[in-house]
Design brief:
This protein is an alpha+beta fold and 537 residues long. The protein is built from ten helices and 29 strands. The longest helix is centred in the middle third of the chain and has 16 residues. The radius of gyration is 34 Å and the shape is elongated. About 14% of the residues have low confidence. The structure holds oxidized coenzyme A (CAO).
Length: 537
């Protein structure tokens, strides 16, 4: 009969048991997690250092334990070859010890023993291909170190070591086929000869995963930790020591991985799935090591019938550009309302005459003309940052892009030299280019060189929105639907036709005061229809 005690857990006392992972009667193997403890800094599993049947539990969820508290009693001790030392001593398990600079294995000196590590029960699979051998003769391994990767048609799986020590001989190679019981390698356990203390590498944080407690030799060194790992989140992640070690090896920040196990416990497979998803970049998640959090992956079919349709080519292109702009440019949106009462009166007078000449005179042509005037007054809004982000490039031309809604998705045709065109010419080009866009006949050059973009949803509706800047431009004007509003004027409310404007700008280039000035100037120009109709100099 063996009592399992809480080992040295650093400076922590009265640590809460947040989960009891086994029950009386369970057969546990070496390294089976028994209970999970939670401090304010980390969760840690207490794994079994011996094998046997749980005879009694000394703790329950919610209890508080410290070093030396009894966790449970194992009966019929069936110590595996992986834990020969544990049989000789009162078994002390050693979970992650956050404050301890060294990892102590409670082992009794003994003579080296050669042990064969075999393929464990892998379900119904036989003759499974070895796709990678992860260790070589001479390597020092700990219990649970991944030794080889096997691949069936359905999954890949790692074979973890059931013993710690120095590898004497590796019995398999890439391409071999193995089944349950096939010998993977022979390890020499060297509890007596190897130092029992395994210093943590300097880079490892206090909560770095420790080698398995039954390891009878020096633990494999903890891999270098990528700087982008959020250590606090990593420490808090609900995962066992081997999963933590696996995540460290891959540079995965466990804090970003969603666990699929009970209560969100993270498994090896969850880590693998996260890496695959990050490498594929398919869900907009970032590759390993970048600072972007990933979006949860949901199996929608679990909740009802679904149909999958691929994104169109234009959607893929514009989607990537919008995403790049959204994550790279600090957007601020300034809202404004322009009084276009006179503009609309005037436009109504001119509309029919223009139509006879084949021009559809919509509000957008006037808005473009007003935008030109504002860009001439505030050239910063027509500028771009250079590639290094250290210089501003002021363009001496004004090419206006406008968002066009087409059956294939969003397109942005560009009206060249908009500053040399009057309202009628702008209206004519708007019509020609949007028709071409809808017919999918725009040439590549007709979508290039824009210096500022206008996105009008006024023909559809809405009161305001946040347009995404068409980078490397530094600003974009969103236009919503005009409506009659009561405006306080000369001591009374008067009905005025107000046009909502939403100006997004790159805050690295444009500050808030300039954003507000530009928007106010634009509104002022829209209120002056005569000025907009003047011939272009
Ligand atoms: N307020 C009220 N009415 C407006 C308006 C506004 N701000 N802007 C346009 N309208 C009216 C027009 O006067 C027109 O009415 P009439 O036919 O009675 O004259 C009607 O709405 C439709 O206008 P339009 O859409 O044909 O013409 P437009 O010049 O305003 O816009 C274009 C052209 C290509 C910009 C537009 O068709 C379009 O595709 N808009 C969508 C842009 C878009 O998707 N932006 C979002 C990008 S981010 O996803």
């Amino acid at each position: 009969m063996t009592q399992i005690l809480v080992p040295d857990i650093g400076d922590f006392h009265d640590v809460e048991v947040i989960d009891v992972l086994v029950k009386v009667g369970d057969t546990v193997a070496v390294d089976t997690p028994l209970v999970t403890l939670e401090t304010d800094k980390a969760t840690m599993d207490v794994p079994a250092s011996g094998a046997g049947v749980v005879q009694s539990l000394a703790v329950k969820k919610g209890d508080r334990v410290s070093k030396g508290s009894v966790v449970l009693t194992l009966a019929g001790d069936q110590h595996s070859a992986a834990a020969p030392a544990a049989a000789a001593a009162a078994t002390v398990v050693s979970p992650v010890a956050p404050a301890s600079p060294v990892q102590r294995a409670a082992v009794t000196p003994m003579a080296p023993v050669a042990t064969d590590v075999t393929v464990p029960d892998i379900g119904d699979f036989h003759d499974v291909e070895v796709i990678e051998v992860l260790v070589k003769a001479g390597d020092t391994i700990a219990v649970d170190t991944p030794l080889a990767t096997l691949e069936t048609e359905k999954a890949t799986m790692d074979v973890p070591s059931s013993a710690g020590g120095v590898i004497k001989h590796v019995a398999i190679k890439k391409g071999d086929r193995v089944s349950k019981g096939s010998v993977v390698l022979t390890v020499v356990t060297t509890a007596a000869s190897a130092p029992v203390a395994s210093p943590q590498p300097a880079a490892a944080p206090a909560s770095a995963p420790a080698p398995a407690p039954v390891a009878t030799a020096q633990a494999a060194p903890t891999p270098a930790i990528p700087a982008s790992i959020d250590e606090a989140a990593f420490a808090k992640a609900y995962a066992g020591p081997s999963v933590r070690r696996f995540a460290r090896e891959l540079g995965v920040d466990l804090g970003r991985v969603r666990g699929s196990g009970v209560k969100g416990r993270i498994s090896h497979d969850d880590v693998k799935a996260w890496v695959k998803q990050a490498l594929a970049g398919g869900t907009g998640s970032a590759p390993v090591g970048t600072g972007l959090p990933s979006v949860p992956v949901v199996d929608f079919a679990k909740f009802g019938p679904i149909e999958v349709k691929p994104l169109g080519r234009i959607q893929k292109i514009s989607g990537a550009r919008l995403h790049a702009s959204w994550v790279n440019l600090p957007h601020v949106t300034q809202y404004e309302a322009a009084d276009i009462t006179e503009l609309e009166v005037e436009r109504a007078k001119l509309k029919d005459k223009a139509a006879k000449e084949g021009v559809k005179l919509t509000p957008l042509a006037f808005i473009l003309r007003a935008a030109v005037k504002a860009l001439q007054e505030y050239p910063l809004f027509n500028a771009s940052l250079d590639a290094g982000g250290q210089n501003l490039v002021f363009k001496k031309y004004i090419h206006l892009g406008f968002a066009a809604d087409t059956p294939n998705g969003l397109m942005v045709p560009v009206i060249r030299d908009a500053d040399r065109k009057d309202v009628y010419e702008l209206a004519r080009e708007l019509a020609t280019l949007s028709e071409k866009a809808r017919a999918g006949k725009l040439a590549g050059t007709e979508m290039q060189g824009g210096t500022f973009t206008v996105s009008s949803l006024g023909g559809i509706g809405g009161t305001a929105f946040t347009p995404i800047i068409n980078a490397p431009e530094v600003a974009i004007l969103g236009v919503s639907k005009s409506s009659q509003q009561p405006v306080w004027r000369d001591g009374q409310f008067v009905p005025r036709l107000m046009l909502p404007l939403s100006l997004s700008y790159d805050h690295r280039v444009i500050d808030g005061a300039n954003g507000a000035r530009f928007a106010a100037f634009l509104a002022q120009k829209l209120a002056d229809v005569r000025g907009l109709l003047e011939a272009v100099p």
